[in-house]
User: Fold these one by one.
Assistant:
Number 1:
Amino acid sequence: SYELTQPPSVSVSPGQTARITCSGDALPKQYAYWYQQKPGQAPVLVIYKDSERPSGIPERFSGSSSGTTVTLTISGVQAEDEADYYCQSADSSGTYLVFGGGTKLTVL
Amino acid sequence: QVQLQESGPGLVKPSETLSLTCTVSGGSVSSGSYYWSWIRQPPGKGLEWIGYIYYSGSTNYNPSLKSRVTISVDTSKNQFSLKLSSVTAADTAVYYCARRVGETTTVGWFDPWGQGTLVTVSS
């Protein structure tokens, strides 16, 4: 079965830049999407189609893609950005959907 | 603004069938370009896509759950439902319903999500 691989954790100081990666063999063919999940809450979409930002999401959130890796970048990290972040995509056929294992972002 | 709300039993016995309903407000399940989805999250773990349904009734399921999952839609009630049979403790999770915004069948994202409901499998 197809898998997306994320680092379990990333730590940054306030005001720094956080980068969270997601790797998968089908990412050159399929878009990636990113979700933020705070404790006890449902996930919220923060990036769609690799790099598009939904309305209402702060500009400090951005996404990029290079080969088999996509990256979520949070510039000028704030304490409120501390959360779990999940990437999501599809297998090479686009039929089956999959989530990465999630990355816990800690703001020191 | 579309909102989704899950409902159903919070406790299910092993070997029985888990049944949940998602009620959609502020929008219609009959709208085109949307696929109505179920996703789950075991306690302390990551997200797992279960499947989705289009208003026409066409479905797509996670291969790892396909033999036990049925997703249906009731356009008259503006609801869609999940049934998962032969449950075990491994099926204990928070179950979310979500709208998948689909530009095509292969391009789409989950937005918005319901608040989630915890289902525990235990005797």
Note: The first strand of chain B starts at residue 3 and ends at 7.
Number 2:
Amino acid sequence: GAGVSQSPSNKVTEKGKDVELRCDPISGHTALYWYRQSLGQGLEFLIYFQGNSAPDKSGLPSDRFSAERTGGSVSTLTIQRTQQEDSAVYLCASSWTSGGTDTQYFGPGTRLTVL
Amino acid sequence: EDQVTQSPEALRLQEGESSSLNCSYTVSGLRGLFWYRQDPGKGPEFLFTLYSAGEEKEKERLKATLTKKESFLHITAPKPEDSATYLCAVPPRNAGGTSYGKLTFGQGTILTVHP
């Protein structure tokens, strides 16, 4: 069956460039989450969507980071003017609802390297 | 603020040598705890959800248990294919007392099982 998919799987960019990361959730899942995993760090929450709304953006590290979700499905995380500290694996997850006990299913991640 | 601490950071076992991983948490109110397995270069894979103290769940060689302050992941007679990073996570609770989806993760335990 189709799980959460993310693209690209790897992205290498130069400092100062903008990047877009895409997430396709499991069909029917209304909640979508973005996390970041850096070397030596745990998974760090960035933002979550319920439908097309983002009730919690508290984890976005700066205003260079933004995300949107359209049609209650695909989401795009955009990082503007990338910095070397943005290098990390960006993980997307989805769940049936945003209720805390709903299982979140993760995609394979996008590994971002900023040179 | 919710905190999740996992121990040990790394665990090396011989094939067949049973052991336990610990996940302790300081959260206000128990509202569920998740265990995930993460292989190198992949996203976390869901293992278990535990909802209340005293609950136990099993899957193959893994058994997860939950008390009011910690959870254990017991690995019985592990095999090399059980080698992975094991993560635990808890959802927050909002002011209304219900939980919602953003997960707080521990740093993980890196398990290596030698043949």
Note: Chain A has a mean pLDDT of 93.
Number 3:
Amino acid sequence: DADVTQTPRNRITKTGKRIMLECSQTKGHDRMYWYRQDPGLGLRLIYYSFDVKDINKGEISDGYSVSRQAQAKFSLSLESAIPNQTALYFCATSDRTGLFNQPQHFGDGTRLSIL
Amino acid sequence: SQKIEQNSEALNIQEGKTATLTCNYTNYSPAYLQWYRQDPGRGPVFLLLIRENEKEKRKERLKVTFDTTLKQSLFHITASQPADSATYLCALLYGNNRLAFGKGNQVVVIP
């Protein structure tokens, strides 16, 4: 089983719909992240959470919200989806140990298309 | 503005040769730099981390260098194999343990 699981893997929806992407992890990591990846733009950070009570905006948080339901679960919501939110979305985790030099572990992504 | 630059053109290389990728950055002062591999349809996978006070790091056929004066990291794959074909991302640690990623550089190893 994957250590970082994202659901759904693919989603097609219409403009204006509310969408939730879910991420769960079995790595026991405190830190979780949401990124989007667009062709030619690379990975960009949407939100991150260093523990259940700590939520922080990343560089492109407008139009998104998150919920950290438990140490192992971090969900991303699009309250009213728009076509330019069509992208590949990744969840990642990292360990707190050593503070600043921990690698991030990624799920396999959710491909989201908004028509 | 802050930038991380990786070559947008794919690197085509013959099997057995050394592939060298470049990551240049501006307006960052990272204490750490990481390299990831990404295969189509998959999430990035961590490969190597190098600290600012380290000149070079090796892992099997992979080698990374980090020059904070030039603001550049080089990533080498020696004795390349077709299985090394993928996109390679550099990432800089900044702020409160956040990573800023380059756009990635595709490598195609030709048998």
Note: The mean pLDDT of chain A is 93.
Number 4:
Amino acid sequence: SAVISQKPSRDICQRGTSLTIQCQVDSQVTMMFWYRQQPGQSLTLIATANQGSEATYESGFVIDKFPISRPNLTFSTLTVSNMSPEDSSIYLCSGTVTGQNTEAFFGQGTRLTVV
Amino acid sequence: AQSVTQLGSHVSVSEGALVLLRCNYSSSVPPYLFWYVQYPNQGLQLLLKYTSAATLVKGINGFEAEFKKSETSFHLTKPSAHMSDAAEYFCAVSGGGAQKLVFGQGTRLTINP
């Protein structure tokens, strides 16, 4: 199994600013992902964080808005840039542990409110 | 491509009653199927998973689910509900492993005393 620590757990931000969310895993993970959960809705995949290279974004998400880094196997960041109230969501990171790719572990999420 | 439909955004049962949360999927390849639970202000916890082995899958906290290919379903059940089961439940599908999960809309389970 893996424990994924995510911070901050919540934040209230002014529109037009940016927030960087960090995700740290206690073991090596093969793949890391970032999801968004808008209020009252399900989770939507934003992107796959690739170690040492540019993330792979899903349709509707772009790097300029959601830049992602993954400098090593256990750490990733997601930045929500130039925020607007529509970005108010829970953002979760996820990882699949090396050799156990049939289970994805999730961080506790970052609850973002943009005012 | 994969998709998931969870029937019923809100299910309410009495404590001790049967819990049945419905999930139907669509997948162009043999699916991997998952049920996750989300407690308030927490991340997601895996309840159980189907990975093409046994069709009846047992998970944590007394939950189980049965994969029915003919019905493209993966319904979650628990024989006797407990107050601590109150949470949001998500069904998810992928085309391989636990990568790039596609989630259903979620079902909020309420347990009545």
Note: The CA atoms of residues 22 and 76 of chain B lie 6 Å apart.
